[in-house]
């Protein structure tokens, strides 16, 4: 068993809005959130007051403890305000990908039993259609303004009292992001107030941003990585978060230059752009002190090229998953020069790890031996919403969460992730479940069978690669790769699109019917 070198941290028995904003009054007029495109700023005092007023407004229209509110928005300075207002009103927040189709959104609404939606006016059409498909939603509100919909500004004018909601941090759900786990379709991950708040305390000794630090939030808040690293953690400790709605390279570089960003939390595709794109040389990025990458594996050579080009310490990495609130490992910011190339870090405070044999899961392995990574700690999720069997398959009776990732730790405790047991595809850090795409492909009348695996493109990104068996009839013979790519693209969010097709005679399966994905990889 591997244990953290840091001292344990006590469980944080606070609602997440108190854990993050409990010291906001002390930061006063310091900027908390800055719109990276137009400079609109919210101070800590404003963020504290505004989220309380909006919470009162939400309570006034009927939001109650136990409700689920769907937050459907790109990154804006209103997103954190809406999130903390909802949790203060007693709701659990299920975050929704802003590029989700109406059908995908409706599945999440139905599964989570969400009764409220907060969105932005450009996404209203999708939100309305999703409501029609799902049913059960009482009202759609908007962060900005739209005819016929209540806005956060209207709620801000509420003069009712702050809601006094009895929250049990150990049991009550704060966030309900959706994850595919190690396999299957997306499932609601129940993260309690205590799990998320304690994970922030666990991360702080290794990775910390406070007053005077300026963090660029370009990765999405709806994703657990962005929610923790770019929203909760910096706002907890008085840093300034500069917000961008999406990654566009020139806008991103201009924001670093103009807002004097000190720390970047990114995914590998952004590291690739920083290392190789010619536009980088046109901007002054000298304010940067460090870059940390997570959400997907980062090639060590690419990391080295990026740090050398920017004149920075080596690029650090971190590791975790939605089911772990999400952090378990990080390269400490004061150890960037010491960390071996390619490591995803060391165990954060209060976290234990086992590496077990792939052939004999009951056998623990030692330093330098690769096996499945198991994690135990206060950040392990409460479970999957409404799926006790899936929860039991993920977390064993002793509390160990089976990550589905294969890795090894060296003699000094640095973890290296080398492969995956799980079937999940990570496209630019976003989860893509093969089973979901396979089910969609089988709805095409010309497809008899299909399987999807992760493959790599020329830039090293993992992409969905579909193996397709045509129906044995004349019409199916004319089915082309472009036909299938378009069919899928019209029905899923952009990050879920199949990127490559291979036609085969039959999908290899075990006697149980399970797809033999390793055999398919031999065809690539």
From TrEMBL:
Membrane-spanning intervals of the chain: none
CDD domains: 4CL (cd05904)
Gene3D superfamilies: 3.30.300.30, N-terminal domain of ligase-like
Cited Pfam families: AMP-binding (PF00501), AMP-binding_C (PF13193)
Ranges of residues in domain AMP-dependent synthetase/ligase: 23-385
Assigned protein family: Belongs to the ATP-dependent AMP-binding enzyme family.
Descriptive protein name: 4-coumarate--CoA ligase family protein
């Amino acid at each position: 068993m591997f244990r953290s070198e840091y001292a344990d941290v006590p469980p944080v028995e606070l609602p997440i809005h108190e854990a993050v904003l409990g010291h906001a009054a002390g930061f006063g007029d310091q900027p908390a959130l800055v719109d990276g495109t137009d400079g609109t700023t919210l101070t800590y005092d404003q963020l504290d007051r505004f989220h309380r007023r909006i919470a009162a407004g939400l309570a006034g229209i009927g939001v109650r403890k136990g409700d689920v509110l769907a937050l459907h928005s790109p990154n804006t300075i209103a997103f954190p305000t809406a999130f903390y207002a909802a949790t203060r009103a007693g709701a659990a927040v299920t975050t929704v990908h802003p590029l989700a189709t109406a059908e995908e959104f409706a599945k999440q609404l139905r599964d989570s039993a969400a009764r409220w939606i907060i969105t932005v006016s450009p996404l209203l059409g999708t939100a309305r259609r999703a409501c029609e498909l799902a049913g059960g939603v009482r009202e759609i509100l908007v962060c900005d303004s739209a005819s016929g919909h209540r806005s956060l500004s209207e709620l801000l004018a509420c003069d009712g009292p702050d809601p006094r909601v009895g929250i049990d941090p150990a049991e009550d759900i704060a966030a309900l992001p959706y994850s595919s786990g190690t396999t299957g379709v997306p499932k609601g991950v129940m993260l309690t107030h205590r799990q998320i708040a304690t994970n922030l305390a666990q991360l702080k000794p290794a990775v910390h941003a406070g007053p005077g630090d300026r963090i660029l939030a370009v990765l999405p808040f709806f994703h657990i990585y962005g929610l923790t690293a770019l929203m909760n953690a910096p706002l907890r400790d008085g840093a300034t978060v500069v917000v961008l709605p999406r990654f566009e390279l020139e806008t991103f570089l201009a924001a670093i230059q103009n807002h004097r960003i000190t720390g970047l939390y990114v995914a590998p595709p952004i590291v690739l752009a920083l290392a190789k794109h010619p536009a980088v040389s046109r901007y002054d990025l000298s304010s940067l002190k460090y870059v940390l990458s997570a959400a997907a594996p980062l090639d060590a050579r690419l990391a080295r090229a990026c740090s050398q080009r920017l004149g920075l310490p080596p690029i650090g990495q971190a590791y975790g998953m939605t089911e772990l609130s999400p952090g378990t490992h990080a390269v400490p910011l004061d150890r960037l020069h010491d960390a071996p190339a390619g490591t995803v870090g060391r165990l954060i405070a209060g976290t234990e790890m086992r590496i077990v044999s792939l052939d004999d899961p009951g056998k623990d392995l030692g330093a330098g031996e690769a096996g499945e990574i198991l994690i135990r700690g206060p950040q392990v999720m409460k479970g999957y919403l409404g799926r006790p069997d899936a929860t039991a398959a993920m977390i064993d009776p002793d509390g160990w969460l089976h990550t589905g990732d294969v890795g090894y730790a060296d003699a000094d405790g640095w973890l290296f992730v080398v492969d995956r047991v799980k079937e999940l595809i990570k496209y630019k850090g976003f989860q893509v479940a093969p089973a979901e795409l396979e089910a969609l492909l089988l709805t095409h009348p010309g497809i008899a069978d299909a399987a999807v695996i992760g493959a790599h493109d020329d830039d090293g990104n993992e992409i969905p690669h579909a193996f397709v068996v045509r129906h044995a009839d004349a019409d199916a013979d004319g089915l082309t790769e472009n036909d299938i790519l378009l069919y899928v693209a019209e029905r899923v969010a952009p990050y879920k699109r199949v990127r490559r097709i291979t036609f085969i005679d039959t999908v290899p399966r075990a006697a149980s019917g399970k797809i033999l994905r390793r055999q398919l990889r031999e065809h690539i």
